[in-house]
Amino acid sequence: MLMNAANIDTCPVRETCVILLLDEMHIKEDLIFDKHTGAMIGFTDLGDFNMHLLHFEDNMLNDTPPKPQLAKSMMVFMVRGLFTRLQFPYAQFPCANLTGDQLYDPFWEAVRRIETCGFKVLGATLDGNSVNRRLIKLHKPSEDLVYKVDNPYAQEKRDLLFFSDPPHIMKTIRNCWESKSRHLWNNGKSITWSHLTSLYHRDTAPGMGIRMVPKIKLEHIKLTSFSKMRVDLAAQVLSQSVSSAIKLTGGEEATETARFVELCDKWFDAFNVHNYTQGIRKRKEFQEPYTSGDDQRLTWMEEFYQYLEDWEKSVEKRKGFSKIEQGTMLLSNETRLGLKMDCKSFIELVRYIFKIPGVTSFLSQSICQDPLERFFGLQRQRGGVHDNPNVQEFLKNTQALRVINCVARAPGRGNCRDGKQDITANKENIHEPLPKRARKSSKATNKV
User: Fold this and answer.
1) Which secondary structure element, helix H or strand E, spans residue 75, and what is its range?
2) Are strands 120-126 and 159-164 parallel, antiparallel or unpaired?
3) d(CA 297, CA 362)
4) Phi, psi of 160 (to 5 degrees)
5) How far apart are CA 119 and CA 415, in angstroms?
6) Distance from C-alpha of 76 to C-alpha of 25, rounded to nearest angstrom
7) What is the CA radius of gyration of the chain?
8) pTM across the whole model
9) How far apart are CA 448 and CA 439, in angstroms?
10) First CA to last CA distance, the chain
């Protein structure tokens, strides 16, 4: 079914380049009897090898025989095309308390099967939870930063790159900045959330007239457990307009905060290019499509990587603070690791794909997990009021969504945009005028 969805037999080489997306969705613990096969559906299933290891571990730790465990979540592997609209949920595994060691074997089995089908798996995008970090670390335990590994199933010598989902990184950056337990500091100046709150109160004061940052509302300032999960709020806070406003109103003490916000905005823009016109429309060069392997943004990413390194060195040189206290002056370890990983991997990815025949442009949003989040939204949507499916319902919904993917719509209030509404026309046609509505003839007007 995957090969048919991608037309692998007739597509050019560039359309065989894909990214593997991985994420978990919480499901309902339930046990269902399948009358057609006579099997009980609802137990964990991580493949034969992992299940044998789990049973062996239980036998060694307990005297009693191990009991089957009900699944609490579903780990999904989705194949996403870098130059096509291919978004195919390839495999799913019912699991409970999944670890990185258990995920290692299914991950490489999926890569092997996809490569055997004729695709080129150039990378894998994951969020920054502990399971995924452990999976990546297993490949090179002795190295601090692991962002690529040799792909043993590739026909030619090729690395598999790891990415931390950029929208998730933006949320964690904003949450670290807002956190009361952290006191970000760099180059002798503080990077505090109070600079943003002061800007908001000044901007919304009576009699101020035109606002400098009209998009910033109270929900951006007073974060809740729900608003902390919204990417749009994080992107609006870490934006160029907020940086300029803080620089204008915050004085000398806020210069490092303004610089921090500006760098985060540029970093996210570089990873969020999803059509050929947004850069022109918004007048932001970092949102224009990539057209060569020598793009200036790749050089900027190397400089941004060095900015993170210099930040860590600046904190290390600050005397009179313990290691724990110095750690609160930086972004969290997981966030810094994800930022560095994305910079290194993205530079190598862009330089590689422009060596492929026929590649003239690239939209960086293709490496993000939005299709997988949208797939989870459709899973919940199919349940109506019952938006938490069990294993059987999840598998049934997946098969249905594979068939009707061309007509399925994303949830109206979802946490990601509907990719089917993106403009992905060729960049040569972006200056052509839009089609106009035909005028009514004079005869029809006279009749009325």
Assistant:
1) strand 73-81
2) parallel
3) 13
4) -105, 125
5) 29
6) 8
7) 25
8) 0.85
9) 15
10) 54
9-55 pLDDT, tens digit per residue, is 678 889 999 999 999 999 988 888 888 888 888 888 877 656 556 65
3-state secondary structure at position 48: helix
What is the mean predicted confidence (pLDDT) over 235-252? 94
Give the model confidence (pLDDT) of 176-222 as tens digits: 999 999 999 999 999 999 999 999 999 999 887 889 999 999 999 99
β-strand partners of 81? 18
Which of these, 386, 427, 372, lies nearest to 126 by C-alpha position? 372
SS3 call for 124: strand
250 φ, ψ to 5°? -85, -15
What is the Cα–Cα distance from 431 to 423, expressed in whole angstroms? 13
Residue 427 is inside which H or E element, if any? none
**Cβ–Cβ under 8 Å, residues 226 and 174:** no
CB of 213 within 8 A of CB of 243? no
| Cα–Cα nearest to 97, from 24, 21, 172 | 24
3-state SS assignment for residue 65: coil
Query: How far is 104 from 87, CA to CA, in rounded Å?
Result: 22
75 bridge partner residues: 24, 93
User: Which 3 state secondary structure label does DSSP give 384?
Assistant: coil
Contact between 284 and 301 under an 8 Å Cβ cutoff? The reply is no
How far apart CA 136 and CA 314 sit, in angstroms, is: 28
Query: For residues 85 and 421, what is the distance between their CA atoms, to the nearest angstrom?
Result: 12
Whose CA is closest to 75, among 120, 119, 105? 105
Q: Dihedral angle at the C-alpha atoms of 136, 140, 145, 149, nearest 10 degrees?
A: -70
DSSP per residue over 310-323, as a string? HHHHHHHT--S--H
Apex CA 267: angle with CA 352 and CA 111, to 5°?
40
Instruction: Return the closest-CA partner of residue 293 out of 229, 355, 227.
Output: 355
- Asked if the model's pLDDT at residue 424 lies above 90, the reply is no
* 415/235 Cα distance (integer angstroms): 13
Query: Which residues 6+ apart lie within 8 Å of 447 measured at CB?
Result: none
Give Cα separations from 217 to 78, 222, 230, 257, 414 (angstroms): 35, 9, 14, 19, 20
Question: Has residue 65 got a pLDDT over 70?
Answer: no
Query: What CA–CA distance (Å, rounded) separates 221 from 217?
Result: 7
